[in-house]
């Protein structure tokens, strides 16, 4: 009996976005930056959102909305920094839709040094 062909299309369990590879192109086990937790696939965007939601879940149920919003943002930034510590703050801020200052503060909280964008060859 022949082995099943490897997947060439994956769908995020949360947002239902689908990633595909063209026929004839060697597909990876899962798309880059996706996660596979016990057969449940999540794209990078949903992984960021889940990190934010996990941070908010740690707050008391009666936490003010502003505290919940801040914690969601902090958790998303920390997730991104831990995933890509070598990325410049500008790129992380853009990915998280936040300020460069917020990323710098998160790096300080985590004890992860800043990366100079010019050292990485990135555009300012």
List the helices and strands and how they pair.
Layout: E1 9-11, E2 18-20, E3 35-37, E4 40-42, H1 44-57, H2 65-83, H3 89-96, H4 100-110
Antiparallel strand pairs: 1-2, 3-4
Helix pairs in contact: 1-2, 2-3, 2-4, 3-4
Overall number of strands: 4
Task: Estimate what percentage of residues fall within beta strands.
Answer: 5-15%
Q: What is the H/E order?
A: EEEEHHHH
Low-pLDDT stretches are none
Strand order of the largest sheet: 1-2
Give the termini distance in whole angstroms.
55 Å
- Rg measurement, Å: 18 Å
User: Which shape, going by the Cα principal axes?
Assistant: flat
Helical stretch tally: 4
| Average predicted local confidence, pLDDT | 89
For the sheet with most strands, the description reads: 2 strands, antiparallel
Structural class: mainly alpha
Helix content: 40-55%
What is the domain total for the residues? 2
């Amino acid at each position: 009996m022949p082995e099943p062909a490897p997947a060439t299309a994956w769908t995020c369990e949360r947002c239902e976005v689908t990633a595909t590879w063209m026929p004839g192109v060697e597909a990876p086990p899962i798309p880059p930056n996706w996660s596979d937790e016990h057969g449940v696939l999540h794209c990078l965007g949903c992984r960021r959102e889940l990190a934010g939601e996990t941070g908010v879940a740690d707050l008391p149920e009666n936490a003010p909305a502003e505290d919940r919003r801040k914690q969601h943002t902090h958790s998303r930034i920390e997730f991104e920094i831990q995933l890509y510590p070598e990325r410049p703050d500008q790129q992380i801020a853009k990915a998280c839709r936040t300020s460069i200052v917020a990323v710098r503060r998160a790096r300080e909280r985590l004890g992860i040094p800043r990366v100079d964008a010019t050292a990485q060859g990135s555009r300012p």
